[in-house]
Amino acid sequence: MPVSPNQGSTGGGDAVTLTGTHFTGTTGVRYGTRQATSFTVLNDTTTATITPSGQGAVPVSVTTPGGTGVVGTFYYLPPPKFRIIAPSAGPLAGGNTVILSGLGLYTTLEVRFGTQLAAFTVDSDGQLTVIVPAGIAVGPVTVTVRTRGGIAGGVTYTYLGAPAITVVTLDSGPVGGGDLVVITGTGFSYATAVSFGGTPVISYRVASDTEIDAVVPAGALGPVSVTVTTLGGTTTAAGAYTYLGSFAVLGGASVTNTGLSTITGDLGVSPGVSVTGFPPGQVVNGAIHVSDAAAAAAHADLAATYADAAGRPQTAAISGDLGGLTLTPGVYRAPSSIGLTGTLTLDAQGDRNAKWVFQIGSTLTTATASSVVLVNGATARNVIWQIGSSATLGTGTAFTGRILAATSITVTTSVTVNGQTLARDGSVTLDTNTITRPW
After folding, report:
1. Mind giving me the DSSP string for 189-251?
2. How far apart are CA 161 and CA 91, in angstroms?
3. pTM of the predicted structure, to 2 decimals
4. pLDDT tens, residue by residue, 185-209
5. Starting at the edge strand that comes first in sequence, how are the strands of the sheet with 150-160 ordered?
6. Residue 336 class from Cβ within 10 Å (0-12 exposed, 13-18 middle, 19+ buried)?
7. Would you call 43 helix, strand, or coil by DSSP?
8. Distance of CA 188 to CAs 9, 89, 164, 183, 233, Å?
9. CA 409, 412, 415 angle in degrees (round to 5)?
10. Segment holding 302, helix H or strand E
């Protein structure tokens, strides 16, 4: 090719080699009407030149003592223009593909992300497919494209670090899902998926780089991992959320009721087969399960949850009566029986995931009109009473938490329970009570 390369920037400054004959003694080189910025005759057939500024297609002429001749055509190309088709962010490791869309890209010579060269494919004058190179550090970099027509920049690409999950609040809920939880962590701005136990959430909203609000999908009993995927990578928090059972009342041998008790949640018995007193008792937002598959699964979950609660390491010892105490989260152990006369206050200190486990070696007995009060973000689902034998709730008690009794539970007249009454081996006895599963 007599003019090589035959394309360049409208601003000039490109090195172009002319090939022909009789170049010895050249006195001038013109690109259109403009003199070359400089030229050097290398030999009789080759001249090196630097282009002046110009526009469009122009003839290239050489003047020697023997005359002036046109050796070819040079095409002035405007600088490229481009933008990144979203997303304009990705992992620090690179390797992902982005599309650059614009004008004047056909003669692309180089694409850089910051200082890093990128591999690319010219799809057309209006599009490049680019493999993003690995970044040097998390944060924004300028993308530049160099073509025969010049260099274009001013477009930003953001290298992202991998996300991280700090906590899920609330960290437990019903197997049917539907709860709104807050996932707190870092690097969430470019989230593309959220799942609980491998199941995508019903919906989610990226509130900020440190918060995702998600509606939990249905799941199976027990703890599951929570996974967040972003353009920067994927993070999984093992066991960060626990699916809780649907039973408000469960007996191992029987459930017996007297009076107008109202149970919100499922009621059942397993492996026993006796449920009496419904009606007049009422079960709302739930069903009665008599030694069926649901009751059997609930009994198995009760046994596992009981064993887990009993095996947790002690935080502090308790004895006698809990009335008048204010307790912060922890595992409290009583070697034998414990009582409650008056009010026990459980203070979460602003932590809605705060947990209490009471390990009671023998019996739990509450006096008339006693109560368990939750303050500063405490939730009933996070209070577990693991009872070594039986629990008796005195008349008019306002009780809170999940009672897991090895043997039996007696709920006397006018008691309200914000929680569960679950007896592993024996019976649950009710008498004009209100029991509400707290999720």
Report:
1. TTEEEEEETTEEPSEEEEEETTEEEEEPPP--SEEEEEEEEETTEEEEEEEEEEEE-SEEEEE
2. 6
3. 0.83
4. 999 999 999 999 999 999 999 999 9
5. 89-91, 150-160, 139-147, 110-113, 116-117
6. exposed
7. strand
8. 42, 12, 8, 10, 10
9. 100
10. helix 293-310
